[in-house]
Amino acid sequence: MSFNCKRCNSVIQTGSESTCENCKVQLDLLEQELVVNEQRIKKLEEHKNSELKNPKSTNPETSLETMKRIEHNLQLEYKKRDGIIKMINSNDSF
């Protein structure tokens, strides 16, 4: 019995799976990327908190620039995470 993949609409032969092998591989890669992204966010948040509690620089301007850089990197990682989640939940083909 053949079915259509729910993501790419290709024909698959198994009855127990709703996605084809290629889509499963792509979803697995996206999930791995999401895990790495979450780890980066966690490390950046830890770095931000440690910098707030104990600034490494005595110069306030340097400390401010460090905080701006950390915040900018956090925003980039949040955007990446949102994009990964959106792609995982979408029905678009890869």
Write the layout of secondary structure elements.
Elements lengths: L2 E2 L6 E2 L8 H33 L6 H30 L5
Antiparallel strand pairs: 1-2
Helix pairs in contact: 1-2
Structure commentary:
The structure is a single chain. The chain is mainly alpha-helical and 94 residues long. It has two helices and two strands, in the order ββαα. The protein has helices at residues 21-53, 60-89; strands at residues 3-4, 11-12. It has a two-stranded antiparallel sheet. The protein is rod-shaped and about 70 Å long. 4% of the residues are buried.
Q: Tally of extended strands? A: 2
Poorly predicted spans: none
User: Quick check: average pLDDT?
Assistant: 87
Identify the strand order in the major beta sheet. 1-2
Question: Which structural class is indicated by helix and strand composition?
Answer: mainly alpha
Question: Alpha-carbon distance between the termini?
Answer: 24 Å
The helix content, as a percent range, equals: 55-70%
What portion of residues belong to β-strands?
A: under 5%
Shape: rod-shaped
> How is the biggest beta sheet arranged?
2 strands, antiparallel
User: What is the count of helical runs?
Assistant: 2
Give the radius of gyration.
20 Å
N-to-C SSE string, H for helix and E for strand: EEHH
